[in-house]
Amino acid sequence: MSSALKRTGPIVECYEVEGSSERRVVICFKQGTVAGFFSALSSLYHFYGLFSDRKYVEQFSNGYTIISMYLKPLR
Q: Do residues 29 and 36 lie in contact, with contact meaning Cβ atoms separated by under 8 Å?
């Protein structure tokens, strides 16, 4: 069994958006496994001087949720 299938917490990836200062943060998690994780998320990126331009949430029938956030510097 691969190590990715054994994970119980969220998986977080960050990507640069080509041609801009924006970053795309993608978080995938199994519903019910990350209690309290998202309550501090906006505080965290605000602490680093970022704001979320847009957010997308996709919930799948297999119990997984994917959140995509596009973050920019406050300037």
A: no
